[in-house]
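Record 1 of the preview.
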Amino acid sequence: MKEFKQSQLLKSLPKQFFASLVEKVGKAAAEGHDIINLGQGNPDQPTPDHIVAKLKEAAENPLNHKYSPFRGNSYLKEAAAEFYKREYGVVLDPEKEVAVLFGGKAGLVEIPVCLMDPGDTLLVPDPGYPDYWSGAAIARAHMAVMPLKEENGFLPDFSEIPKSTAKAAKLMFLNYPNNPTGAVADLSFFEDTVQFAGENDICVVHDFAYGAIGFDGEKPVSFLQAKGSKDVGIEIYTLSKTYNMAGWRVGFAVGNRDVIEAINLLQDHLYVSLFGAVQEAASSALLDSQECVEGMVEMYESRRDAFVQGLKNIGWDVASPKGSFFAWLKVPEGYTSEEFSDLLLKEAKVAVAPGIGFGEWGEGYVRAGLLTSEERLIEAAERIKKVGLFVKKD
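->
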């Protein structure tokens, strides 16, 4: 059989660090071990019934069996605009300031291709979502990292970015509530972001994947709530986390008209929009009762409290995340994040994600997902206790 070689572009893509974690967890499970898997980022709850019912109803409509409009049905874009007005007081033009996406990830990877030429500079958070690197690689852009340090609340310090780097940058990724740290940003930070971006002609892309998930009575802030935000960037929202629709692959980008048009233009050449029934169900999710979202947030907060208290009870000094469904935990001295993750999997049969997988500044931490029941999270803490690395102080 003739061998066809991959392109240099494919060869340049970053390796999927977490593929090795999946392999390790799968191997342990295949050996018959009961693994508590906290290394994933996949919601464990089903999509709410009323959204599924809408999909079923819409799937029977023959009109949805045809190609959808290239740029999505107007009713879905109008629903996204209504959602932003209701939730954040942000006014959007549905046709010019909303782009329908095949999930948030697609938009995040597409943006560098839309706006950057080879060699252009992209500012990325470190630690951060690894698929930011994928977009940079496909666009053949140069990445400059913005360290997210605990002492800064895991927010980038724009004053630490060299002036030459800031002036060279074309694009910046941000993400709050944050994956993997669970940190949140306030309006003041986003106002500073708008000022910094404006001074340096940088397009801001705010990944708002966990926008619905804030704790202790605090609602996460949208980047678009900052004055002047639409002049300098966009926000990407996905229904994956808010409505447990990860497998449905539906989201949208909102904000700057030029950027939205660029996304639409690229997608004109890649897709023929989403299945109409999915668009109808997505509209239902955005516009109908939000009780399911409120219940989901309460569930994650309860899980967070149970897990964090369980870890504190065994002597592990950890901080409670303020948002998202992840906990960002310091590893004990003497271990790298990968060594500690391997130890927990081997000795406690608990899987967590090593921080180094999210970037250099993720070293020294592991990420644990709150994506299993409270009982299993408490059990995970008890299993970790038996490893013997933590001693509770009286």
